[in-house]
Design brief:
Shape: elongated
Radius of gyration: 55 Å
Structural class: alpha+beta
Strand content: 15-25%
Largest sheet: 4 strands, antiparallel
Distance between the termini: 99 Å
Number of helices: 30
Length: 832
């Protein structure tokens, strides 16, 4: 695809050069700085001073001043001109002889130094001699298949090397020790220092003119077969793809990043970066194309022209204007070597940003995002395309000159709603990615506020996540937008994130009460409870506690029972105050007392007694209703019995009085146990409830130690045996008790209590267990006694050893405990 990379500007026209002499033709040119030299077919050399002029309209032109016209001694065509500015010499090839002339007056050097027998020659731009006062010249000799290398000084020449080739050379370029030669049938690389050669590719010099040009360190440009411009290094490889130019190419020049080629009718410009032909200029009768220190000069036989490159920035902008993003980026990256680093970085970032907006306009969002990131785009440039997204307080002003041609998203999408939706989804995704990165530094308020507005408008689920996390949404702008889109729950979160919890709660309560409509959260009541549970503003908790309890006693009480652990440790809510608040709500009161007694384990009689009374009243109330609510009764009665067993703080006599006259026998038994009236308790369990398992459990949980447990089990056995009626079930209960707990009885005392009618077989399990326990106790005692004797013996041995040592005391020695001198013979000696 085409791009305007160069413009053709006349430099030396026919009238300046030859006047009306029609037979004079330009044969060669040389340019060194502002000095332009032209060699003609009549043995003349023209010296012009070339100065570039830039007009305000960016039209480049050249001022050419003729300095000198000099005829050579031989009126033959001048074949080559090469300037050696370090020596102030111009090398002139005419009639197979290279003559050294002064660059200013064009006079031959007085010594007459020259090189004879040259067909063509070139200078080594990467010299190996290291002498700054000479240049290295390589010639194709008139001798067959011979290359010669010379050192040329101000007034003399010195041959250095003569190299022979396998075929007749036609053209040569040199770099260091390497020669790139166009032979009759092929191109080769030849190291004249080592003699090593490398064949490149075949070429028919009879069919077309060969081109060999050094384009950089150890790299050459060659005219290859099939109309290809081939790149080759001194190692014989190509590190760049070839460019496609004309089959009839006459000359080539390099002006990075372009290769310029000349044929009989056109000048073509090819990119070295992507190998595409970028520009074509009509130019007939051209026969010379060369580059000199960045200047590209082309000539016909009658005139000289300069190809002036357009600034790379303008070329890139032209490509971007044509929406040729990839080409623009390739050219921009290629321009790095020609532009100072800091200037390039600024330019390249801007180009990336422009390219990103072009891709964005084409809905190529992935590519646009990558370009925005690489170009470090101020994300507000993108946000500003979307109407009303930037906060009213934002100080952002778009880049100048602008990065794109669009006023806003409506112009970009031309009102297409589908495209607009895609653009908004992209911005949501992009802002969500960059909001926590360095991209948003300095203007996080603008980014988060814009993201909130997009989420609210799209009813996006991430709206709540944004507001629930740390954010920088501006309250004024965001609140108006959320109200507009009826996002009242989200508005409450916004108030909360800005420290306005009272406003948030007021709004949420209105939603729960149905005063305003917002179906964002179906469990908003529970959310409010959780919110107040963790709220550090206790005034707010008290303010809404009544409302919460009215809505649900079981859930509302959580604001007091599920406070953060650090608040519980500080006792931030006085339990008495809470209970005063909960007195109207019995279910909540029970829950709160359970929290105090069972979870926080507060050891206060009034809380324990209060909870027991509440349980008791509920049990009695449920019993009065019959068995319709049996499950709730069983659960509450189990809680009551558990609390009566575990707690020792409630008022036992008071509770006992309250249950008198009721059928709560188990509870009465537990209370008698607390009063250590175990005979009454066991009587209820055995004779009233006939719950023998409960009686055994009673003995277990009322036992503080083993002797006390034995006492209770003996009392239970007596209750079984001393009954006024010899019921069979009591007898079996007594047998089961003995057989189940043989270690908890004194066997001798039990045998005295048992009726004589009981057989040994009936008590076999008890007797076996009792014997085992007795033998075990005896043996354990013997082991303990043996260990004590052994330990005592060890101490006696130590005592004997200590008595065998002499301890000398004097008033000069200090006690290690009190640090005072010994004054009396009494002392204690410690051994560690």
């Amino acid at each position: 695809m085409s791009v305007k990379a160069f413009k053709l500007v006349p430099a030396v026209e026919r009238e300046m050069l030859m006047g009306d002499k029609a037979r004079i033709n330009i044969e060669c040119i040389e340019c060194c700085g502002k000095n332009l030299y032209i060699g003609t077919n009549d043995g003349s050399i023209y010296h012009f001073l070339l100065e570039e002029k830039n007009s305000p309209a960016e039209k480049t032109s050249f001022s050419v001043t003729k300095q000198l016209h000099k005829y050579l001694s031989v009126r033959k065509a001048v074949g080559e001109l090469k300037a050696a500015s370090a020596l102030n010499r111009l090398l002139v090839l005419c009639d197979s002889t290279i003559t050294l002339v002064n660059m200013i007056n064009l006079e031959p050097v007085p010594t007459g130094a020259r090189i004879k027998g040259a067909v063509t020659f070139t200078l080594n731009e990467n010299p190996v001699s290291g002498d700054p006062f000479c240049v290295e010249v390589c010639i194709v000799s008139v001798k067959r298949r011979t290359i010669q290398l010379f050192l040329v000084y101000e007034d003399r020449v010195q041959i250095v090397k003569e190299v022979f080739t396998q075929e007749q050379p036609c053209a040569v370029a040199v770099d260091g020790h390497y020669l790139c030669l166009a032979l009759t049938t092929q191109y080769i690389i030849l190291n004249y220092n080592t003699g090593a050669s490398q064949d490149l590719f075949p070429y028919a010099s009879e069919e077309r003119r060969p081109i060999v040009k050094r384009i950089g360190r150890q790299e050459f440009l060659l005219a290859g077969p099939g109309g290809l411009g081939m790149f080759a290094t001194v190692d014989g490889i190509s590190q760049r793809a070839p460019v496609h130019w004309s089959e009839n190419v006459i000359g080539a020049a390099l002006c990075f990043p372009y290769v310029v080629a000349l044929d009989e009718e056109f000048i073509t410009v090819h990119s070295m970066l992507d190998q595409q032909q970028k520009q074509t200029l009509a130019f007939k009768e051209g026969h010379i194309l060369q580059d000199f220190e960045g200047k590209v000069i082309v000539a016909t036989t009658k005139g000289v022209y300069i190809l002036v490159p357009l600034p790379l920035e303008k070329q890139i902008q032209d490509l971007l204007a044509s929406h040729r993003v990839e080409e623009a980026l390739v050219l921009a990256r290629g321009a790095r070597r020609n532009i100072p680093k800091e200037k390039f970085q600024v330019m390249y970032k801007r180009i990336l940003q422009q390219a990103g907006f072009i891709q964005f306009a084409q809905l190529q969002f992935l590519e646009a995002k990558e370009l925005f990131r690489s170009g470090q785009l101020d994300v507000r440039e993108l946000i500003s395309l979307y109407p009303f997204l930037l906060p009213a307080s934002s100080s952002f002003i778009r880049s100048h000159p602008p990065l794109h041609e669009y006023a806003d998203l409506n112009q970009l999408t031309q009102g297409d709603q589908e495209k607009m939706s895609k653009c908004k989804r992209f911005l949501m995704s992009y802002l969500n990615e960059v909001r926590t990165t360095d991209v948003a530094n300095g203007y996080k308020e603008d980014v988060d506020t814009a993201l909130l507005k997009l989420y609210a408008e799209a009813n996006h689920e991430n709206l709540l996540d944004l507001l629930a996390s740390e954010n920088f949404c501006l309250l004024t702008d965001s609140a108006v937008w959320l109200e507009k889109h009826k996002k009242f729950f989200a508005l409450g979160l916004l108030y909360h994130s800005n420290g306005q919890d009272a406003a948030a709660l007021q709004l949420w309560v209105k939603i729960v009460n149905g005063d305003i409509q917002d179906s964002t959260r179906k469990d908003l009541y529970e959310y409010i409870v959780d919110f107040l549970t963790s709220c550090s503003d206790h005034e707010l908790v008290w303010k809404y506690a009544e409302w919460l309890l009215q809505k649900s006693e079981e859930i509302g009480v959580h604001v007091f029972t599920r406070r953060p652990q650090e608040e519980e440790q500080e006792n931030s809510f006085n339990p008495d105050d809470v209970m005063s608040c909960l007195n109207k709500y019995p279910k909540s009161l029970v829950k709160y007392l359970e929290f105090l007694v069972l979870e926080r384990r507060i050891q206060k009689e009034k809380y324990h007694s209060h909870l027991v009374v509440l349980y008791l009243e509920k049990v009695l109330a449920l019993k009065s209703l019959g068995s319709e609510r049996n499950e709730e009764l069983v659960e509450t009665q189990a809680k009551l019995q558990s609390l009566l067993r575990q707690s020792d703080l409630y008022r036992t006599h008071f509770i006992l009085d309250k249950i008198s006259g009721s059928d709560l026998h188990m509870e009465r038994a537990i209370l008698y146990g607390k009063l250590e009236e175990h005979d009454k308790a066991l009587h209820i369990l055995v004779h009233v409830l006939k719950d023998f398992a409960a009686a055994e459990d009673y003995c277990m949980w009322n036992s503080e130690n083993i002797p006390y447990r034995r006492k209770l089990f003996h009392m239970l056995l007596s209750a079984y045996l001393n009954s006024s009626t010899s019921e069979h079930e009591l007898v079996m209960a007594a047998v089961d008790l003995l057989n189940s707990h043989p270690s908890d009885f004194d066997a001798a005392l039990v045998l005295q209590l048992l009726p004589d009618s009981w057989s040994v077989q009936l008590l076999s399990s008890f007797l076996s267990g009792a014997m085992r326990e007795s033998v075990h106790a005896q043996r354990t005692s013997q082991i303990a006694l043996g260990l004590a004797k052994a330990e005592n013996l060890t101490y006696k041995l130590e005592k004997v050893k200590v008595k065998g040592n002499t301890t000398v005391l004097s008033d000069r020695k200090l006690c290690q405990v009190c640090q005072t001198p010994f004054c009396e013979p009494a002392f204690v000696r410690f051994y560690i």
